[in-house]
Design goal:
The protein has ten helices and ten strands. About 35% of the residues are buried. The strands form two sheets. It has an eight-stranded mixed beta sheet, sandwiched between helices. The protein has a two-stranded antiparallel ribbon with strand order 7-8. The protein folds into two domains: about 30 residues; about 200 residues, Rossmann fold (3-Layer(aba) Sandwich). It is globular. Helix content is about 35%, strand content about 15%. With about 280 residues, the chain is of the alpha/beta class. A hairpin with a 5-residue loop joins strand 9 and strand 10.
Length: about 280
């Protein structure tokens, strides 16, 4: 009897686990995006990156101050959820100014803060995002949809494009852009795809910036780091860098000193921030 009871208990447990596994497989088949939850396990991505000796703390890090030659204004800045750090937006403007970017392309538009800031220093800017109809089909409210392009609409320097970056036809834009900003879907497979796209978009000396490479200015977001690494052509991986005091990683062939990222980071210097009430 004890043997039979134990056997029945084991078989019952096996059936429960098998049923749970089959339900999980069925859910992924019905909604493939659920697979992202499996693919984006941070520990697995970190373990992969740790196998690459020089990347055990993420990409080598450029000091933000090495790019900052003079004060730079970030305007507009919403101080609201889902946006960038002030230093992220400043980084885009700094790179555009320092390396004289003539055009800019970004994947992912929210309130339009990033492209609006860049448009102050770059005359030709493009921003790609899902159409309002596509966002609505994903269950988002009209209020949420209406916030898109809040800062960037009606600006003559900015062209808004609509579509899913995974299926959009980029052929007419390939090889034309001096600065590309990747800030779309941050799941692993999407970042891989957008990274491959970004390398097709840049000009010969073009620069790519990825947002949310880090969870914080001191903490690498490993699923994004791994996706950037995988999407980057192998011969160009040596040019991948993080940027201190930001959430960003960059690809740039221009000569810049870098060093291994350390945690915790000593605040070698502070910044002066001026907050002004917007003019009416």
């Amino acid at each position: 009897m004890p043997y039979i009871a134990t056997r029945n208990w084991i078989m019952s447990g096996f059936k429960r686990k098998s049923s749970k596994f089959l339900r999980a497989i069925s859910a992924v088949i019905k909604n493939p995006l659920l697979l992202n939850a499996v693919l984006d396990q941070e520990d697995e991505h970190r373990d992969f990156m740790l196998q690459i000796k020089e990347l055990d703390n993420g990409f080598p890090e450029i000091e933000f101050n090495d790019l900052l030659e003079d004060e730079i204004s970030v305007k507009p800045f919403a101080f609201l959820d889902g946006g960038s750090l002030p230093t992220d937006l400043a980084l885009l403007k700094l790179l555009a100014k320092k390396f004289k970017a003539k055009n800019y392309f970004e994947i992912g538009t929210w309130r339009g803060e990033s492209v609006r800031n860049v448009a102050d220093v770059v005359e030709e800017c493009y921003s790609l995002n899902l159409s309002d109809e596509e966002i609505k089909s994903r269950g988002m409210s009209d209020e949420y949809i209406g916030l898109h392009r809040h800062f960037s609409k009606n600006n003559p320097r900015i062209t808004h494009l609509f579509g899913d970056s995974r299926s959009f036809d980029f052929s007419q834009y390939e090889g034309k852009f001096d600065l590309v900003f990747v800030d779309g879907d941050h799941h692993f497979d999407s970042v891989v795809h957008d990274t491959q796209t970004a390398f097709r978009l840049i000009s010969e000396k073009g620069i790519i910036v990825w947002h949310d490479y880090s969870n914080s200015p001191e903490s690498t977001r490993w699923n994004v780091a791994h996706a950037i690494w995988k999407g980057c052509p192998p011969d160009k991986r040596k040019y991948l860098r993080a940027v201190s005091h930001t959430l960003c990683a960059v690809f740039m062939t221009q000569e810049m000193s870098s060093k291994t990222r350390r945690y915790p980071k000593s605040p070698e210097s502070g910044f002066e921030i001026c907050i002004k009430k917007p003019s009416s």
